[in-house]
Structure formats: C-alpha cells, structure tokens
Amino acid sequence: MKDWVLKYQTLIKGEFTSKVPHTEEDLSFWQDQLFYCFLFYCFPVSMIAVIPGVFMAIKDGYSIIAIVDLSCLFGLILVTFISRVTLRKRKLAIICIFYVLAIFLINSLGYIGPGIFYLFGITILIALILPVNYACWSILANFLILAIFACIIELKLFNSALNQEYTIGAWIAFGSNLIFLSIVFVALIHQIFKRLQLTINNKTLLHERYKNIFDSNPLPMWLFDAETLKFLDVNAAAVRHYGYTRNEFLLMTIADIRSISDVSEVKDIVKANCISGQYYTGNFQHIKKNGDRIDVKIESNLMEFDNRPARLVVATDITDQLKSVRDILSAQLKVIDSESNLRAIFENAVEGFVLLDRKGDIKTFNSKAKAYIKFNKILAEFENGKSIFEFVEQSRYEYFRELLDKAYVGEVIEYDRKYRASDRSAFWIHYTITPVYEQGVVNGCCITGRDITSGRIYLQKIEEQNRTLREISWMQSHVVRAPVARIIGLSAILHNDPDDKDIKVIANYLNQSAEELDEVIKNITEKISPEPHG
Hints:
This protein has helices at 2-17, 27-59, 63-81, 87-109, 115-129, 132-155, 162-165, 168-216, 236-242, 246-250, 260-276, 319-348, 369-372, 397-408, 453-495, 501-528, and strands spanning 221-225, 231-234, 280-287, 293-305, 308-317, 352-357, 362-365, 413-420, 426-438, 441-451. By secondary structure, it is α+β, with helices and mostly antiparallel strands. A 5-stranded antiparallel β-sheet has the order 2-1-5-4-3, sandwiched between helices. The protein has a 5-stranded antiparallel β-sheet with strand order 7-6-10-9-8. It has 5 domains: 2-200, no CATH class; 217-317, Beta-Lactamase (2-Layer Sandwich); 324-348; 350-451, Beta-Lactamase; 464-528. The protein contains 16 helices and 10 strands. Keywords: Membrane, Transmembrane, Transmembrane helix. This is PAS domain S-box protein. It comes from Mucilaginibacter pankratovii. InterPro entries: Biofilm_reg_signaling, HisK_dim/P_sf, MASE11, PAC, PAS, PAS-like_dom_sf. Residues 206-250 form the PAS domain.
C-alpha cells in the first residue's frame, strides 16, 4: 500500500513541480503548494462523496444527478493528471467544475443539498490558492448566483426545488449569512497570507544578510552537515584560499581537507559537539588542493540547516603566525644560549668585571670582581642596584668620580694600583674603565680589574738583572780594561828594545794577546750597553 501511495505522490508531484516556480520568497509558491495538496487529496477523498451520492441518486431515480457527479469527477481527474495544462488553468478549471456542481446541486436538491457547502467552499479555496482579489470576485459571483436563485424563487421559474422549500425572505436571510461568512473567512485568510508574506520577507532579508556576511567575509567559512560531514556551503574566501571550486567543495567532506591521521579525531570532536551543542575552537592542519599544508584556527558553532544539524565554521590561517612564534622561540633559545655562553665567559674570565649605568649604579658583576676590583680596604660583596661609590673609600671619592666622568664622555682610563695583603706582601691590580655605548650614546661604563703582580715581579727581576749587567759592563770597561792597557804599554816598551831577540818575540806574543783580550772586552761591553765607553 505504501508503494502505491508513493507512486501516486510521485506522479502528482512530477506533473506539478514542472509547473511551479521554485522560489520560497514568493507567496504564490505557498499557494501553489496548497493547490498541490488539494489535488493530492481531492481525488481519492472525493470517493467518499461520489460513490454514495451516485448510488443514492440512481436508487432514487435522480439519474441526472449521478451523471453530473460522474462528469465532475472525470473533470477532476483530467485536471489532476494532464500535465499539458498550466497550473493557473488547472486552478480555474477546478473552480469552474465546483461552481457547476454547486449550482446544479442547489437547483436540484435545494437548501438541504451539498450545493450550498460547495458554494461557500469555492470562495475559501480561491482565497487559499489564488490572490485575494480572485476571492473578492468569487464573493461577488456568489452574490449574483444567490440573487438569481432569489429571482427563481420569487418568480417560480425552472421548476426548481427551491420553489417548494424557500420564500424570498428566507432565501435572502440565508444568502446574506452565506455572504457574511464568506467575507469574514476571506478577510481572515488574507490577513494570514499577509503576515505569512511579511514573515517570508523578513526571512528573505535575514537570509540575504547572512549570505552577504557569509560571502563577503575575508576569512574562509563553510557550513557542513554534522552527521555526514559533507560541505553544504562555502564562501568565496574559502574557494580562493584552498583552491577548490565551490562545486568541488560541495562534492567533498571536511575529511577531504585533513590528513588521514586527523580524520578519526575530527569525527569524534564533531560527534561530541553535536551532543553538547557548545561553541568549539581549536588548531588543526588542513591540506589545500595543491597539497600545501597550512595551520588553521577553527571556530565553529552548531546550527540547524534544512532541519538537519550543521556546523558553521570560520577558519583562520595561522601558518605565518605560528612560524613567527617558532622563529621567536628559536631566537629566544639562541639568545638564552648566547647569554649562557656569555655568562660562562663572563664568570670564567681572569679579570673582574663591574658594569655600571650612567648614574654609577651597579648593573651586574662577575665572581672575580670582589678579588680583583678593590676600592676600599674593607672587602664587601658587590650588589646589583647599589651605587659603586658605596664601595669607594672616602679619600679617593673625588678622584674616582673624575675617572668615571672621563669614561662617560668616551675616554678609556687605565691605571695600576699597589696593595698590601694581610701577610704584608705586595700585589698590583691593573684597572681599565671603558665606556659602554648603546645606539652610539654612552649609557654606562665597565670597570675591569686584573692581577698583574706576577708581571710586576717579572719586570722587577729584569730591571735588577739589567742593573747587574750594567755594573758588569762598567767593571769590564773601567776595571778590567785598565790592566790590559798597562800590559799593552809594557809590551810596546819591550818591543822597542832591538838587541834581545827573545824579549822581542815575547813582547810580540804579549802584545798580540793583550790586543785580543782588549777586543773581547770591547765586544762584551757593546753587547751589554750600547753606550760607548772609553
């Protein structure tokens, strides 16, 4: 039985929909829908009236009534199933059929017959399936029909059944009530349709606003079925950003723009949100048509679309933003690593460091600062934020202030200072005060202190050795050389005696040795001291 009903419905709907303009914004669309429903139910339900009516008419000898009933039923069938007839003509044909039936039944059966009901029902049907002015014309037509029947009653024409049942007064009273009811119901139906049209207009306006917001939104947006995950609508930004056409989107599901590993998670999230109905936001990775992977922030909310649960989604591409965050984190890690390396170098340097700001307050210092930077006989731990002058002895305050002022104008100051340890041993610290620049402007200075005691001792030893060598050189040039000079003189005297050959030979050897010794002393003296000696 169900299959037969579906076939019948398909037949009526198939013939009907080709004649109906498919736009819900127009009130006539809904009037056409009502006429469709009328056609769908009228033919099978009419059997309730036709079969017993025809049977009783034949039984009681009213053959003409049976013929008219069957003719009207045949006309109804033709109007319902012949698709060549336009929808407006079919409406007018139905109205004409029922008017013929109503007039005939009123004339044949009088007041007690169904003709009066048909006459009233025709006006209501016209008000439902046609514009209200047609219903007004129908009321006027009813008035004329009732007036004609009044004349028939008054003049006793056509041997009408009304002649025996009504007087002119009773018929006028009956007819005026019928017209009254027709006007009231038509007015009510008109108000209902007027409010319906207003509702349709408001709905259309809201829909247009939604479409404008949806389509003109610069962010990708789409609507998808929360059960099948199919795309129901996408805006232009989504088409531009993802590379798919709108028709391609509508053939896809949201799983098609995700990696396979994310699909199960997405389905679970959508299912949970359908139950909770809550607003959802989260970060995911999507795949464009060209295969590019992008990071997006998803914001979605549950709504109803065509009586089905759907979710409206806004997708914000945060790929560049996350890349910037990762770059910043990487840079921060590098800075931290660099700072760690600098701190390690700073702490393990052989010098003591104290960094000051422009006011002379301590910004930072290393562990060697206390040992190698001494401004006071009393050892004190440096503290960040304290003034360096708190660690300078009073007698050197002004002198130290002058040194800092020179550094603050860009001068580099270096000096050595000697100290005494607790065991009275001496040690030396070499100080350097260097200006610190920021964007080309001196905004502080750095004081470094380095222990140069070993270097000082080494220099002292070298100076002592130099003094010893100078003494040796003096002795060679003055003390040793004098006897050599005397030997050379004696050799010359011996050499002047020509009579003794042996003495002459001895004098020659003695003179040669003295000259060689004198030459050696000269060389040693020249190497020890570049100054000439006589």
